[in-house]
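Figure caption, in words: inputs first, then the predicted bound structure.
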Amino acid sequence: MRPATRALVIVGAGHGGSTLAALLRQSGFDEPVVLVGSETHIPYHRPPLSKKFGAQGFRQDIRPSEFYADNDIELRTGTTVTAIDRSVRTVTLSTGERIEYAHLVLATGSSPRRLTVRGCDTTGVLTLRTVEDAAALARSMAGGGELAIIGGGYVGMEVAAVARSLDVPVTVIEREARILARVASPDLSQMLTDYHRQRGTAIRVDAVVEGILEQGGRATGVELADGSTVTAGTVLVGIGATPDDALAHTAGLACDGGVLVDSSGRTSDPSVFAIGDVARRPIDDSGTLVRLESIPNVTEQAKQVVAALTGLRQPEPEVPWFWSDQFDIKLKIAGLVRPGARIVHRPGKREGSFALYHLGADETVHAVEAANAPSDFIAGKKFISQRIPVSPNALGDPSVSLHEVAGATPVGS
Ligand code: FAD
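Bound structure (flavin-adenine dinucleotide present):
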């Protein structure tokens, strides 16, 4: 038997690590908990970094600083776990110290994917993941000049909206034929493209970046494959993120585009768990493993690990969801957006509010994209989790209540 002094060690003091530590204490877990994080800050929220970086207050702590000591959580900020030795169950820290673990949880997150074109390391070419990144973006933009955003994903479009609200000229450069191509329906992409363009954002699609233009070591623009250029003193690269699974990989844990885990967050080693952006996990009975990057995802996985470590019942699976704020649009997306779904447009009660329901062949809802439409988001989530067939005609008719939609006989039956 292992000595009782061995701790639960959590690697990564971001959203997942800090949430897990807090939930464990809430559930009565009384063994030592050590939360090790490379960043020098106490755990903070990342969503405001792309939504509020131009204003004061983009740095928002997840919990007050005294929370950790008050709850007997040993928080080691500014400290990196450099190695895991599974044979003796220890981790090595950047301080040279070793800590023995009873269980280990990897919550190392992900890192921005880097551009690999000429000039990509020039001053003024930035990515956005940390508070320092957000401060650097705000500083660079305050220096004047245009902003080019490479990548029309959610983070890029949120930054574009903030920049336009500050009157900064913005160009979004997207390689695909539409913004949000991997994560939103064509209808939502189009609606957001129009909304951004009406507010002055230039959006270039089917645009391949050749290189960064520079003068005196500072970015001055982006050169595209068609020979055209986009002038910009600040270039934000928002082309996705890759899981920080090197530590797990080196330790011999099964990894394939993220650390592979089961529905309780357990890796190929039963004493090691992985949660959040770094993990690939099952979300339904199909056995397919997915890697999601969202707060609801990491929170759900933290709950799964709490159940596994305390012997509590595993929580019911949740419908994956995500949110994004762009200008005055509050988007909430539930389920996984997949190509080929039948899209039913449901106008909302307020001007500019609507929901796009994604239906499968069996007329069950697979996903819902709700813009300023919280009731549709809640109803859509319920339709997805309960696999309730809906009538597309009733769904598209705002005079039919969402309650009636669920009860309606599916078309064609
Ligand atoms: P993180 O919160 O990234 O934490 C990982 C931590 O581990 C980091 O602090 C890292 O430094 C540390 N670490 C890594 N390796 C080591 C090591 N070896 N030793 C010690 N520490 C280590 N999600 C939403 O749902 N809605 C949103 O609107 C939204 N907006 C976002 C906006 C931005 C700009 C970004 C970057 C993300 C956004 N997300 C959003 C995604 C969300 O923030 C992440 O999915 C979530 O933070 C993942 O939590 P995590 O614990 O897996 O990783």
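The CA atoms of residues 141 and 234 lie 7 Å apart.
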